[in-house]
Amino acid sequence: MVIAGAPGLELIGPVFERQRLRALALRTSSAAVRIATLRRLEAEIFRQRAALYEALHEDLRKPEAEVDLSELMPVIQEIRHACRNVAGWMAPRRVRPTRVMWGTRASVRAQPRGVALIIAPWNYPFNLALGPLVSAIAAGCTAIIKPSEFAPRTAALIGAIVAACFETDEVALFEGDAAMATALLDLPFDHVFFTGSPAVGRIVMAAAARHLASVTLELGGKSPVIVDRTADLDKAARSIVWGKFANNGQTCIAPDHAYVHRDSVTPFIAAVLRHLAAMYGEGGRSPDYCRIVTPQHFERIRRLIEDARARGATVHVGGVYDAADKFIAPTLLSGVPADALIMHEEIFGPVLPIVPFDDIGEPIRAINAQPKPLALYVFSRDAAAAERIIAQTAAGGSCVNAVMAQYLHANLPFGGINNSGIGSAHGHYGFRAFSHERAVLNDRFSAAPMLFPPYSRGVRRMIKLILRFLT
Ligand code: NAD
């Protein structure tokens, strides 16, 4: 039965029940079976490559190179990394006995959690639906995907890929909006992997709590970048322009706003303007520049810019709109008052506010006064200063002298902290998100039975002795 692309709410219950049965069978699936499944998915993705470029151009005006870099590459890397490592990840991990556990043999076994629900956002709609699916398959789970309704062509294409690769009792996709997500969340999934906003993350976690389903929440927020007095300003400006304006700023780990040492503000702004023109042409009129996803998001970002302007911010470049085309020119702001909306909401658009500082303690205090960000970036030639910033702040992940590169490192966990997320994705961390680490202890000749009641004098002395030597 192919339901991808034309789902009905009435189908989700039966598909879920069939996935439960299949999940039991997959519990003992071998690494070879999981690898074969992942290879099948990879082959189908490559077969649909032209359609993928088309869908993402339609949904977000993404240029082909950016589709390759930010949608295809992460998913293919996840697949190949998992194929290379899944046998090792699945292998029981022996643990040494502690002193009181002499005579036992123990191991940690990664077992599939079971039936997983993957809810994806629209900004990297392909990557953020299929990346978690790769981890779910590697871990031996079945999965239902709910892609975002705001990238409908890509959602339909993912549905076609899923339908070509899987029976619905292993992987199914249901298109739809919040109503579909809500209906899915009513089912007792074993794990919910959600990528999206902190506001909806709260709703998802509350819904998962009804079934005590474990969750991975990949959320967002305001990710700051600090450019200190010693930074290579040209490198900082070039990296930040790329990180901020790729995908029109609609990236969860994009630098949201930049704290720049006051002495460096003027040359930094000049460098940003130079790199903006080089990457995206005058006023962002380059085919490499994406568009805002929906008229509602366009209005939201316009409101943020106009609110800052009305409160006296300087617009160095941009602040130019074309509503019919959902186009907002790359915009650089300074002198933004602290109470402007743009300093409180996640921007998620092509606007970079610059905030000057005199002492490095100022941005550290400002960051610690806000919810913990998904990413925090530092540009500095002073290793001790960079280390101090990282040690004194909290963030999901960080780069020194780079932005967003932490996402592409397959051996690093990717995730937030509190408001920016719970749990981690990618590689082994993604596999673990969809696995339960089960403790298995085999008693061969431990001393435990000697401590059973009746608590005679001898037993009591032995317990006290053990207490003394406990490690
Ligand atoms: P969103 O939270 O509005 O939607 C995400 C998904 O949740 C969509 O599939 C949507 O249909 C669904 N949804 C909406 N309302 C729901 C409800 N009431 N109950 C259940 N599900 C519901 O997010 P978005 O606008 O698609 O994406 C932007 C946000 O996602 C930003 O905050 C961004 O930072 C964050 N994000 C985070 C990551 C990450 O990896 N941490 C990646 C991309 C985006």
UniProtKB/TrEMBL annotation:
One of its GO terms (cellular component) is cytoplasm. One of its GO terms (biological process) is aldehyde metabolic process. Transmembrane segments: none annotated. CDD domains: ALDH_AlkH-like. One of its GO terms (molecular function) is aldehyde dehydrogenase (NAD+) activity. Residues 26-439 form the Aldehyde dehydrogenase domain. The keyword Transit peptide does not apply. The active site is at 218, 252. Keywords: NAD, Oxidoreductase. Belongs to the aldehyde dehydrogenase family. This is Aldehyde dehydrogenase. It comes from Acidiphilium rubrum.
